[in-house]
Structures are given as C-alpha cells and as structure tokens.
Amino acid sequence: MDYVVFGIAAVACLVGALGVILASNPVHSALSLVGTLFGIAILFVEEGAHFLAAVQVVVYAGAIVVLFLFVIMLLGVDKAEALEAEPLGGQRPAAAVVAAGSLVLVILLGIRAAEVSNGAKAVGGALNGPGANVAKLGRALFTDYVFAFEITSVLLVIAVVGAVVLARRPDRDEIEITETEAAE
Amino acid sequence: MIAQVQAMSTPDVAWSALAPLLALVGGALVLLLVSTLTTAKPPRGAYAIITVLAAVFAIGSAMAIWDRVTDPSQGPYAAVAGALSIDGFTVFLTIVIAVGVALAAMLCDDYLRREGLDGPELYVLLLLAAAGGLVMAMANDLIVLFLGLESLSIALYVAAGFHRRRASSREAAMKYFVLGAFSSAFLLYGIALVYGATGSTNLVKISAFLSHNVLEREGLLLAGFALLLVGLGFKVSAVPFHVWTPDVYQGAPTPVTAFMASASKAAAFAALLRVFVTTFYAQRVDWQPLIAGLAVATLVVGAVLAIVQSDVKRMMAYSSISHAGFILVGVQVASARGTSSALFYLLAYTFLIVGTFGVATVVGRRGDAAHAITDYRGLGSRRPGLALVFTVFLLAQAGVPLTTGFLAKFYVINAAVEARSYWLAIVAMLSAVVSAFLYLRVVVAMYMSEPGAAADADGRLQIPAGAGIALALAVAFTLVVGVVPDRVAHWADRAVPVLTDKAG
After folding, report:
1. Could you say which of A50, A78, A106 is where a domain stops?
2. Are A73 and A9 contained in the same domain?
3. pLDDT average, residue stretch A71-84
4. Contact call for residues A48 and A29 (beta carbons, < 8 A)
5. Residue A126 lies in a domain
6. Looking at beta carbons, which residues of chain B come within 8 Å of A130?
7. Hey, which residues 335-374 in chain B have their CB within 8 Å of chain A?
C-alpha cells in the first residue's frame, strides 16, 4: 500500500515539476507547481506528518501559488521573455559549474553523512511519541515558544507599516532630486 | 485526532523584564493609533517627542531591574519559558539601543519636515526596529534571536528607502533588502545546523550539551558556526560581508544611517557576544581564529578605503566598518574583559556616530545631498559651534585622549594584550593611526579652507532644536565620560552576559 501511495504521489510531483519548466505559458507553470506541492503533501501524510501536510497545502499550494499568479497577472501573461539576452556574461557556464558542484556535494554528503555529524536526538522527542502531532505543536507554540510566537506579531506590524510606506505615492509631484554623485 | 485534553500550564510572563520592550512597541502603536484617529495636524515635533518618551521609558524600566540582576544573591534570570535572558548585558544593551533610537528620533524631527516627508511612519519603523534589536540582545534562544534580527532588518529596509524622491535612497533600500535577506538565510541555515548538532535552539541547553559532551565528528557544528558568523558578520558589517555598508549608509536618510550605525550595530554585536563568547565558550579555539581574521580584515579595509572617499557619509560608513573591527577584537578575546570592553565601545560609539551623522544631517541641507567633503569647507567660520562639535566627534573617533573614543580603543586593545593577542593589538593600533588621517582631513576642510560658492548661495545653516539637543547630549557624553569614565566602565564590567535557565 505504501508503495502504491508513494508511486502516485511521486508521479504527481515529477509531472508537476516537469510542467513548471516545460510549459510555455507562465500561468500553466504556476498551476503545475500546485501538482508538485500536492504530491509532497500526500507524502507528508504518508509519513504521519499531518500538520506539515496541512501547512503544505494551505501555505504553499494556497497562498504562495496565488501570490505567484498575482505577480504573473500583474506583469502581463502575454509578454514573451527574451531568453537569448544574458544580462551578465558567462552566467550560464557558471550556473552549470555551480549546479554540478552542488550535485556532487549532495551525493557525497548522502554517502558519508555519518562522518559529518553525530548529533543528539532532538529534545522535542520522536514524532511518534504519545499524543497527536498537531496537539504537540500547538502546546509548544503556547508554552516554550510563546515569546517567539508573540514577537512574530510585531514582525507583522512592521510588514504592514512598511508596505504602506513603500506603496504610498509621494505627496508632491514625482520630482527626482538631483544629486551630486559621489566619486567612486 | 484529539486524544486527550490536558490542562496546559502557560509560562510565567515577567512583565518587569519585558517593560523596556513593551515601551518601545507600545510607543510605536501609540504613534500609529494617534496619527490614524486624529485628523488635525499634530503640533510640531509631537511624533519625535512620543518616540523619545518611549525610549526614555525603556531606559528607565531597564535601569529598574539593573540592581536585581547584578545583585549576587538574586542574579540574572530567564523570562517567558526561558526565551529571554534578563541580565546586566540585557540592561546595558537596552540602554545603548534606546539611546540610539532617541537620538535618531531627535534628528528625524526637523529632517522630515525639511524634506517634506513628515509623518509618524519613520518613527514607528525606528521604534519597532529598536524593539527587534532589544529582542536580539536578550534572546536566550536562537529562534527568538532570528525573529529579533528580522524585526530589526525589515524595519530598516523600509526606513532606508524612506526618502522616496531620492533615487539613491531607493537604491539603498533595494540593496540592503536583497543582501540582507541573503544574510538572514545564512543565519537561519546556521541555526538549523547548530540545532542538528546539539539538539536544541535554546542557548542554555546548547551550552550545557556542548560542555558535557564531546562531539566525535563536529563538521555540522563547525558549519553552523561559520554560517552564524556570516549572518551576524553581515549585520555588524565585518569585511568581507561589508559590501552593502557604504552604499546603504550613503543612500539612506541621514538620521536612519545614524540609527543603523549605532543601535543596529549594537544589537548585532550583542548577538555575537551572547552566542559565540558565552554559549560557544567551550569551542572558542574553533571560532576565535575566524573572528580574529574578520577583525584584521575589517580594521585594515575599513581604515584604508575610508581615506580615499570624498563623500563624508560614505567616509563615515567605511570608518564605521573599521570601528566594527575594533569591537571584533574585543569579541575575539572571549573573556569577561573583552566583552566589557566591547560593551563600553558600543555605548561610546553610539553617541559618537549619532553625533557625527547628526552634523551631517544638518549640513546636508534640503535634499539631503550636500555631503561631499567640499560642502564642509569653511564651516569653522560660518558655524563655529557646529564645526567645534563636529571636531569633537571626529577627534573622538580618531581616538584622541580625554574622549570616550580614546578609552574605548584603549580598553579593547588592553583586553587583547591581556589575552596575549599581541599582533591583533598591533593591527588595531596601526588602523587607528591610519584612520586618524581621514578624520583630520575633514577637520582641515572645515577650518583651513574657504567656503565654496554653493555654500554662500544657501545662506546660513540653521541648527534645528531637535538636532541641537541630540548633538549637545552626544558631546556632553563624549567629553564627560571621556574624562571620568570610572562609573560607566564599571557598569560595562558588570554587564557580561550570563547563561541561566533559572526562572525569575
């Protein structure tokens, strides 16, 4: 049964991922991403991480993909991107080298992981300990991490004020102030 | 799904320890509410006064817990389920940050009216950034530290771009945002790796784990150290993570630059001191060489590049990099003496740099653009008082005796010598000699050259009330503490961070 579920979810992930890079229409790319994210959510459920699965769907497939779509719509779907123009010379060979290097590093780490770390078990205990996952997370959020939880609200206030400041038009006419550019 | 419902014991909230933080956040919310609910134009300077009051309240409520946390029979304690550490270090840095925000607000007052940007938003952002800095200073948990850093940074990204009609201000915000987000990611990776290696994000638990266990293979921990150092090194603008500093300091509105160079730097050094010097004390042989290398690079690059600048704001940005190098020397020593010397440096530098950028705010004139060294020509004859004040700040930064700048450098170098880091002390002294040249260059421009034609056209410079008070306070602190430093130095000695999970 595990294999069947894994197989279906994995296929959904891969098809979605291929769709993201192969679709010529950016909206289709963004929608394909939803398939990948759903596949990963199913894998999380399979592993017993229900909270993570829910967050995956709500935050990623919901909010973030919608945000992508907003941006795509705002910038205009029909604009074709000139892929031939390279803003910085030598970007592509450099990207290939970095990608290959990262791949080698990840494979090496996978093979020799035991030599890099032998860390302690997380203090939170195993996921499958007594009590439901979601309940434990909620408990941690309101006991050990209550301060972190509350200070996040300050962060949200900053984000709101910042967004208003940046989005508001200047009261006067848009006159650029000319400046004496500093040498160097 | 819901197996059983147990009574949950919620953590105790130590309100007295949180009072400084609540004062800053509360001040910001009051500003937002008042400006939203009233349609009438507020009296001149009302926003700045509310901001200064919030900062003063934060300083007062921090001082109120000083006696308790430095009393040996009671001692420091951890607040809100061990998330915050309330000790002399917290109180000292609360004062440094609150002083930074209060002085910056005084500079903002006239600046915003002059530039046609008046409104409560910049004060709100500065107060919330200061609150984030405070959280960084008292964080006892890496997650709380990260949230504090983000609050500080995000507010400052916006503040840097506050002068929207200036292209360089928008550019500064964009550069700061992109590079800052990048460095936050480094810090977050570092936190994740340290968590992986030690099994906790709580500094007390990490420290206990590392002192009771020997890691057979510590690759994960060392990688975590390196990434944490990159993230925090960016915030203190240590070379080679300093590239953003000149552009952002130059482009941001000058009062915001003053805040960045004082309070924001102090908060980042607070995190560096608490995380590395205190928590990873047992591993100091691993990270001391790294910080020593950063300190040398920062001292040399900051001082040398500052000399070739012709824009005073940019010059002060490079000079602030070299000052960060001095503080890093104090961090590298990894002793109580080193920490208290770094703390004294932070307090002294806060007054110095806000004063320096305060003068730059006034001289910058409408448009905030007259910052070239030629704009300072003949200031000595046009505004003798302002020129004298600026001379005090510049000489103090250069490390002339009878100022706090000299003592700060002296304490740091003294701590390095005591820890037998002789070569580091020598590099620091050489850097001080090199940077003395650039401060003297500005002094020479003020007193020994004729004013340019552009300066005459603008007429006499006005020194607004808010900036005048801020400059007077900064000069008073620099000279008075420079002559009689004993009391402040004693406070810094008792403000060494302590790790404790004892509830208050």
Report:
1. A78
2. yes
3. 72
4. no
5. no
6. 3
7. 367-372
Question: Cα separation of B332 and B338, whole Å?
Answer: 8
pLDDT per position as a tens digit, B185-230? 999 999 999 998 888 899 999 999 998 888 777 888 999 999 999 9
Q: CB B125 to CB A158 under 8 A?
A: yes
Mutate to test the interface with A, among B165, B264, B308, B501 (most CBs of A within 10 A): B165
Domain that holds residue A63: 1-78
| Separation of alpha carbons B119 and B317, rounded Å | 27
- Is A87 a domain residue? no
Task: Tell me whether residue A94 is in a domain.
Answer: no
Alpha-carbon distance A172 to nearest alpha carbon in chain B (angstroms) = 8
Domain count, chain A: 2
Instruction: Please give the Cα distance from B377 to B12 (Å, whole number).
Output: 59
Amino acid letter, A6: F
Q: With the C-alpha atoms ordered B361, B367, B373, B376, is the resulting torsion angle positive or negative?
A: negative
This complex has an ipTM of 0.87
Whether B309 sits inside 8 A of A182 (CB atoms) is yes
**pLDDT, tens digit, for every residue of B108-126?**
999 998 888 888 999 999 9
Q: Per-residue pLDDT for B491 more than 90?
A: yes
Q: Across the interface, do B151 and A158 touch by the CB < 8 Å criterion?
A: yes
Distant-in-sequence contacts of B228-231, Cβ < 8 A, 24+ apart: B228/B187, B228/B190, B228/B191, B228/B194, B228/B275, B228/B276, B229/B190, B229/B276, B229/B287, B229/B290, B229/B291, B229/B294, B230/B183, B230/B186, B230/B187, B230/B190, B231/B149, B231/B183, B231/B184, B231/B186, B231/B187, B231/B188, B231/B190
Three-state SS string over chain A comes to CHHHHHHHHHHHHHHHHHHHHHCCCHHHHHHHHHHHHHHHHHHHHHCCCHHHHHHHHHHHHHHHHHHHHHHHHHHCCCCCCCCCCCCCCCHHHHHHHHHHHHHHHHHHHHHCHHHHECCCCCCCCCCCCCCCHHHHHHHHHHCCCHHHHHHHHHHHHHHHHHHHHHHCCCCCCCCCCCCCCCCC
Residue A166 lies in a domain: yes
Which position has the token pair 């604009």?
A79
> What pTM was computed for the model?
0.89
| Domain range summary for chain B, segments of one domain joined by + | 19-493
- CATH code of A63's domain: 1.20.120.1200
Q: What is the pLDDT of residues B7-37, one digit of tens each?
A: 677 788 888 889 999 999 999 999 999 988 8
